[in-house]
Amino acid sequence: MTDAFTSPLILQELPEPVAARRNIRLLLLRDDLTHSDLPGNKWRKLKYNLREARHLGHNTLLTFGGAYSNHLAAVAAAGPLHGFRTVGVVRGEPTLPLNPTLAGAQAHGMQLHYLDRATYRRKTAPEVLAELLREVGPAYVIPEGGSNALALPGCAELVTELTQQTYFDYLCVACGTGGTLAGLLTGLAGTRQAIGVAALKNADFLRTDIEALTRAGTGATYTNWKLHTNYHLGGYAAYSAELMEFIRQFQARHGVLLDPLYTGKLLYAILDLLEKNYFAPDSTVVAVHTGGLQGWQGFGQRFESRSAWWPVVY
Q1: Pairing status of strand 11-13 against strand 25-29
Q2: Higher-pLDDT residue of 7, 1
Q3: CA separation for the pair 230, 200 (Å, rounded)
Q4: Which terms are listed as keywords in the entry (predicted)?
Q5: Is the pTM higher than 0.85?
Q6: Among 67, 166, 187, 267, which one has the highest count of C-beta atoms within 10 angstroms of its own C-beta?
């Protein structure tokens, strides 16, 4: 199994007037470009989980996600790349035809297994896991979103790579399950500031989850971070005309496509925080583009009729 990325870390300067007025250098870390088959934070979160699965003698990965999950798509792609059979436990009832995300996962060889929503909420209960493993056979279980203690060191490596290229004061990332931010915190080790932007409504619980992850991974918790929960723009996977227009304008200015679930909200939040003088003058702010562009497939399928503009991604 190779761990090599196919291209070095790329930093792109974003010449935004709101940043220039306070002499703030705004950089976009293009982690969406660092691995050709598993772009963004998904590879970083999977890297050491795949090593552990191999070490424990497993040839099957079992994981969880919604019908449009970037994580399911990533695990499905990782399977044939690294010699694993994959099983995706999907929230909700099966529908045909499969949406683009699940169709792509199946094309990569992933076996799809569905749980009704009530059972899915109990997916980590021992009896539910035991029944799943009885049905599919022995497997290495990766949690929803890939966020566990083994996800942290892969994300922490981003900090090492970044500090080799530039000095920075703030490192900003979108949050779904909190695993990427937790990994960045372990990499920062209490230095500089980390900013998380929650992609979900009512995401205050993530603060507890992030602290639990860092404690599990390193035995430590950190105070050099903030989580902003008021930039969900309607909630996870919800349509927002305001966000669509922001993504369109951002792409026109910088030639970079953001996704509507995570990175679009992240950059929207950062520019709003710049307007509010949140960041110190003369500082360097780095935003992490964590990929997730496959999400446009399912998002467009559901909401295309509401917008005149949709990017051609695949």
Answers
A1: antiparallel
A2: 7
A3: 9
A4: Pyridoxal phosphate
A5: yes
A6: 267
By C-alpha distance, which of 146, 177, 159 is closest to 77?
146
> What sign does the dihedral 202-207-208-210 (CA atoms) show?
positive
| Residue 295, CA distances (Å) to 12, 68, 73, 275, 298 in order | 23, 7, 9, 29, 6
Q: How confident is the model at residue 313 (pLDDT cuts 50, 70, 90)?
A: low
* Cα–Cα distance for residue pair 253/256, rounded to 1 Å: 8
Classify 55 as helix, strand or coil: helix
Alpha helices, DSSP H only, in the chain?
17-20, 41-55, 70-82, 100-107, 117-120, 126-136, 151-163, 179-188, 205-218, 241-254, 263-275, 295-303
pLDDT at 139: 98
Spatial strand order in the sheet of 11-13: 11-13, 25-29, 284-288, 170-175, 193-198, 225-228
Q: 156-175, pLDDT tens digit by residue?
A: 999 999 999 999 999 999 99
Amino acid at 214: T
CA 240 – CA 237 distance, rounded (Å): 9
Beta pairing, strands 25-29 & 284-288: parallel
Q: What tokens appear for 88 in the block?
A: 């995706």
Q: Which long-range contacts (CB under 8 A, 24 or more apart) does 296-305 make?
A: 296/259, 296/260, 297/99, 297/100, 297/101, 297/104, 298/67, 298/68, 298/99, 298/100, 298/101, 299/68, 299/237, 299/260, 299/261, 301/99, 301/100, 302/239, 303/239
> What is the arrangement of strands in the sheet containing 111-115, beginning at the earlier edge strand?
111-115, 85-91, 60-65, 140-141
What is the phi/psi pair of residue 86, to 5°? -130, 145
Q: What is the pLDDT of residue 1?
A: 46
pLDDT tens-place string over residues 88-98 = 999 999 989 99
Written as six digits, the tokens of 253 are: 């200015």
